[in-house]
């Protein structure tokens, strides 16, 4: 099951490799079929998933099968390392509540991404091969339970992303692409060292050998005393936690490592922005929940305040920057930074409410931001500009577009009844109830105010009022006296066309439904989060020493 | 007065030689191949480079059989301790044969060499001569023999570098190479002579025994180590003995550049490992309490300097060959990391890294030649827009470069993984070196990606230039190298296990 969902896109990529480059439509359809098939598999996984099983760590006795689901575990590489015993790398996949949420999100966003890529005309073959490679890598990251395998998928994302931004991006794409590549590589190379260090510090209780298994690493009882990251090696454990955290924080992106994101978003084509904001950013916080925190719980407990403060900075700083942007896409990019701050804040609360809120926020941010970027793409396709103050009065000319924008914008600012509200509310409940984060939460509430400010202000400037004199479109009055607008070189439908609606309507439905009835997603993640909070808790740690 | 040996003594010498010759078959075979090639060149006339190339490849591949036979033989030294047979040496015999084959393959597609007026006979013969020399560098167990082997490699390499006689760049490169080479040979010999002066022995094992038994003056020892490292550092292209390499790499015919940057570098490493591991391992009594520096520390500094210098200076290169030259300086630094740990895991890691380096660096140069055949240039500027015109070459070059950076899922990543594992297995002792290695590899991403950047992200200003077609054979080789680089990135078990098996050096006990 999991192998299928991971490798479906790459199979599509191989098929596309054999298709001649002139057959653009076939290439697109192959990609769409793969993405849809991935969606079907994700649906089946979701149906089969048993929400009572917790995951996070192995079941009592050390077997991951009793706790993770749909586990696939095969020996991959066995090396003789002489005095260090055999080196075992496994092909080890499985899901728990944290990963299945992200698997569903990834499958959904991948389909949206293919649809959104439909109008791309430049080097279609190369584009979709890279797209499918990226899709496999993302999915692989979320289901890998072997650190080595995770690392391979993690790094595999970089190159396709580099080319997707670099070849199909905007005018300043070279800079944005290499900046993205260097930043994320800088974060992940330290992960390599930590991974090796962990390998030498952890023993799989079932085999008695060193292991890369994340499940074994998540149990502090499996660490060897005297090893470089063993329980008594406090300094190195702190350093390892910090460098891992920075590696993941770059992906989130957390202030002050966020500067690659606005550049990447502004230059990336719409589908890639959707993937980037919808899925890639989640890998940062997912990595924290899967690797960074459970492997070093005592450092996590010591760092709660710092993580919370960074979360608050993200929330407020992101909102401030968004407020200052003239470019609509840049505004949305900064709003992403702000919203990922809520995730960090929820994680720093380190209680069930906060963590559930964080994970749910990751899912909701994925769907909402995907919508935001798609909507930005719609107007950019028509006007070839995203300058907020060049638009005005669009609501009366493009009513469907305007109403979807309103839903997305309100979801983003956390209006009750839409999905973003529930996750943000949970994050705040969690943060208020934890003593460490309470003062931070009070300050962070300001972020909501500023969030409302930039969203409502942009909405007002673009959609309300009258057409502006220096606008990017002409006004025409037909014989019946109705006013129409006309974009200079846009031949298609003025309001949303069928393809755009196919992408946006399902997302809108999800955002509304999950805002009213969050259980389809939240039901799956509760027991895993409880387990996570338990092993991260101070109680569990006193037991360990 | 020289005394004539008695008949019995002569008999015993002859019988020792006879019995030793059984362990020396691959080298004898390769020397035979060398002669055959020269004869064949004389017999068939000048216009026969394709035939000669094919014969060379077939001959080199035939050598694999004799190397394979040696697996069954016991680890031993022979020819009065001049030469050793061990798994470490066998690994390098395979390695040098493979690099020889790749050297011939790269030569056969190179347009500048194809048109060479005096034919390619000597060229291929010298290539094989270098293979013999490098095999001997990896297996010699005695200082004079090591020196002779290294000279054999160097002399062949000088001639190969200057093979394009009429081209100024090539001649200049050869001269520079010769001058630097002569100086460093002298230093190596001086270092050897100091060690001989301390021990009155030239056999590495007995040098070790004498040092252990009688102690030594640490000041002389450090001077000797420094001189030996200087001599070898030139072969390895490590900072600060690298000054020749960018000019020579740029000026030499590209296939020779590739050959030098992989094979001759690897031979330097093989010799370094054997010499120091066998003759002067750490922890010899009477050592610790004197000077607190030793050859390991020298190597650590050299390694760090090479990684930093090579990777940083490469950023400003505009010529792809020069860029790869600086990158090869950096790779010498990474390779040294595996030697510094002085254990089996480190040796294994070094061998795996060398194997990956063979594939990815040869791959990169192979594509550089294909592109140069088409554009007549190795400048970064002229790579613009090539990705679209040469899809296979572009994709393959990207894979090789990603592998050189050390990103998964490529073989280069496995090399780095093994090296860093070897470092971290020692706890936090070598953490600072691991950090330098990691950070400089991020820098390396920047300049390696300049090539795909030009190939894919930029459009060529010139509409269409040169002849487009690469032969099917060249495509096949490119694709094979690319697939191998990716395959071993995911399934490196056989190579890594073979490297572990090969990490046994005769006369050393590593843990």
Can you tell me about this structure?
The complex is a heterodimer of chains A (545) and B (511). With 545 residues, chain A is mainly alpha-helical. Chain A has a domain at 304-545. Chain A is 69% helix and 6% strand. Chain B is an all-alpha fold and 511 residues long. Chain B has a domain at 304-511.
Q: Please state the oligomeric state of the protein chains shown.
A: heterodimer
Radius of gyration of chain A from CA coordinates: 23 Å
Overall form of chain B: globular
Mean pLDDT of chain B: 88
Distance between the termini of chain A: 39 Å
Helix content of chain A: 55-70%
Helix-strand string of chain A: HHEEHHHHHHHHHHHHHHHHEEHHH
What's the gist of this structure?
The complex is a heterodimer of chains A (545) and B (511). Chain A has helices at 2-18, 24-48, 97-116, 124-143, 147-156, 158-168, 173-201, 214-217, 234-251, 260-267, 270-295, 297-324, 328-349, 352-383, 394-397, 399-413, 419-433, 438-463, 498-516, 519-536, 538-544; strands spanning 69-80, 86-95, 473-477, 483-487. Chain A is mainly alpha-helical and 545 residues long.
Keywords:
heterodimer; A: 545 residues; mainly alpha; two-stranded antiparallel sheet; 4 strands; disordered C terminus; B: 2 strands; globular
